[in-house]
Amino acid sequence: MLVSLIKQNVINLSAYKVNDFECKAKLDANESPFGFDISPEALNLVKTNKYPDPEARELRAILSKMWDVPPENILHGNGSDELIYYCIMATGGPVLYPTPTFVMYSIIAKSLSEATLPIALNEDFELDTDAIIKTIHKKNPRIIFISSPNNPTGNAFAVENIHRIIMESKGLVVVDEAYQSFSDKPSFVSYIGNYDNLVVMKTLSKIGFAALRLGFVIGREDIIKEINKLRLPYNVNSLSQTIAVDLLSKKQSELSEDIQTIISERYRLMERLNEFNALRVYPSDSNFFLIKPLRMKGVELYSKLLESGVAVKSFGAAVPALNDCLRVTVGTPEENTFFLNCIEKILNTKRTT
Ligand SMILES: *Cc1c(COP(=O)(O)O)cnc(C)c1O
After folding, report:
1. I want to staple 141 with a disulfide (CB 3.0 to 4.6 A). Which of 87, 96, 282, 339 is the partner?
2. CB 98 within 8 A of CB 118
3. Which of residues 224, 250, 276 is at a domain's end?
4. Residues 142-174 pLDDT 10s
5. CB of 102 sitting under 6 A from ligand 1
6. Would you say residue 21 has pLDDT above 90?
7. Element of type H or E holding 94
């Protein structure tokens, strides 16, 4: 292979790395610990010889009710990752995002050779709105990504900060609500009529459907129409469409119960972890949260957890703001108790209470 044929911006990229551990509790990928059984009747509806519905009409109709927004305002993607691609392709750069945040914004911007404007979050992981607005005025970013709640810090940003950014920006602002179901803060979907430069991104990945790869952009019809021109014709396959339609139409109450369980397990986990003097626990509005061991290195706790059978996410030197932090996804009650017991053994400290 003539590597010299590859464009320089691609050579400079590093591939998105996913760990594939065999372990007792896999708490490293922000997946829901609760899945759904697929009904054979749903599977029988899939015609293997036919292309999927390119417009995913049934699925968008159901989501239109769930999110209280007309179907014309919803664009479907093969996960929201695909839609991040389309959004950046549609506007071009510079691409502004706070940092640390979801890495795909920068990976996709760079893979499209677009300039990036990463702006550091404050010490408490809140948006540095003044710095962002200054950069907006100076560099005029054509697109801004705000993940709220933010991955990997876990917190939702102050709503008025997001409003200020949308108002100051001449570019498109994408509010990524991958974790919004776990937060008390309201969705920005209700504001798409108020701003002509706002779209909201949603995904089913974090609420039990990661296997299906279903993400969505919600926005004004004129913007959705333009982004839709970039969408590959059959981007969401029939299996995913059919299974999602079947489950979303029948399992709404299980879905909200699962989300409630995850939220209450998050409270239980964080409360117990806060009792350890040797650990800092960061606030969260998501199905995951950050911890930082205070008397050992983050990587040391990471390895010891892995040896005990718990996988969490560690951030290497690549993310200095998260030095020594580990990201823990809320699992099933059993996984969470197992994780707590492992932490207690590793930190080897009596709790303060
Ligand atoms: C997980 C995640 C996504 C990706 O969602 P997919 O629909 O699985 O592609 C998007 N944004 C954020 C902030 C995420 O953490």
Report:
1. 96
2. yes
3. 250
4. 999 999 999 999 999 999 999 999 999 999 999
5. yes
6. no
7. none
